[in-house]
């Protein structure tokens, strides 16, 4: 049994106080500070399989999974061995290595549907932010156009162009979403409501010849999970291509997590998961759409700092040194990170994805049952094995405004009741829950046992 959270709080509180003296907010990425759920962040010291352990020795079933990478569970022995082996041969060379080509080949080979491989060339970078930043620079350089379309509530990392948000009443002029982003940069990004093809068509009718690209989360999971309507991504491809613009599909979060070929693979392979969660029109032989560029992160690095962009060879070959679009990185293709990513992808077979799907189904329906039992109106949002919940209404939100209309205040008490019972959920209602193939019956049992009290806490919030 996990030790009580009361005991753990003292130690974590001391850690947090100390961290705040040396690190802004005590954290190196804002969501870790528990701002939206309140309370004291847990300071983790180790992780194994489905569990994480804090500095007090309290163990939690982990449903954060490092925000996505840990599909095999934490510290999988084969991944750790591969990392140790690579480390013993040197930490970083700043020169090209055979393993980078192995990983590029594996990414190319895995992203396939109907025999079509949309990822023809791959470049390795270190973070998802770099992957999307490079993808949009590449789209701009390739098309010779400056405007970019993104969707409200979609997160693509924190580069200036992508930290833009819709201004109130001004559908076509975005504002900086962060201090420090120049208004002139944000104004080159047009932010549209998600799942609204009419809005996309209208902007393209007006400015289509100036638009370099649409960037879209393959299945959005950074405003909670909000799956695309059936055919939405395919329509984006059609609209973009009709105007000489590119479609950049951001699979940093979904890539190699929701299925072996990511969300694009699910949407285009007619797999049962796609049918179940997408309302998709059955098996398809030929992909319904082709992205021009795809970004990857998280799983592709197996828990190490590694991300990638890939896509059409003619577009990718516009990157330096072949073409005029500049991109570089001291640690790009780092040998330790490549070893972790390669080993993780090689181990992520059909059995792993079946386990992820089954665990996601079990947990999401158990949460829904518990919330329903406690009389909490809610919606279960699912996209493949990614899921999240919105509170206050049983109507499924289809865009950011609808997600924001929920009773978010119910999540903090729910989150803390789970944490007190030894289950670590994402510390924000606007995040997806991440399962791993290591979540066995015991770990799932702990989650299920904790749910009734947490649902009660949400009900009385
Ligand atoms: N794109 C998406 C869809 C993401 O979910 C994230 C990270 N959550 C990013 C880009 C940015 O990746 P990173 O945090 O590695 O910079």
UniProtKB/TrEMBL annotation:
Pathway: Porphyrin-containing compound metabolism; protoporphyrin-IX biosynthesis; 5-aminolevulinate from L-glutamyl-tRNA(Glu): step 2/2. GO terms for biological process: protoporphyrinogen IX biosynthetic process. Its EC number is 5.4.3.8. The modification N6-(pyridoxal phosphate)lysine is found at residue 298. It catalyses: (S)-4-amino-5-oxopentanoate = 5-aminolevulinate. Its cofactor is pyridoxal 5'-phosphate. Its main location: cytoplasm. Keywords: Cytoplasm, Isomerase, Porphyrin biosynthesis, Pyridoxal phosphate. It is found in: Cytoplasm. GO terms for molecular function: glutamate-1-semialdehyde 2,1-aminomutase activity; pyridoxal phosphate binding; transaminase activity. One of its GO terms (cellular component) is cytoplasm. Homodimer. NCBIfam families: PRK00062.1. Belongs to the class-III pyridoxal-phosphate-dependent aminotransferase family. HemL subfamily. This is Glutamate-1-semialdehyde 2,1-aminomutase. It comes from Herbiconiux ginsengi. The gene is hemL.
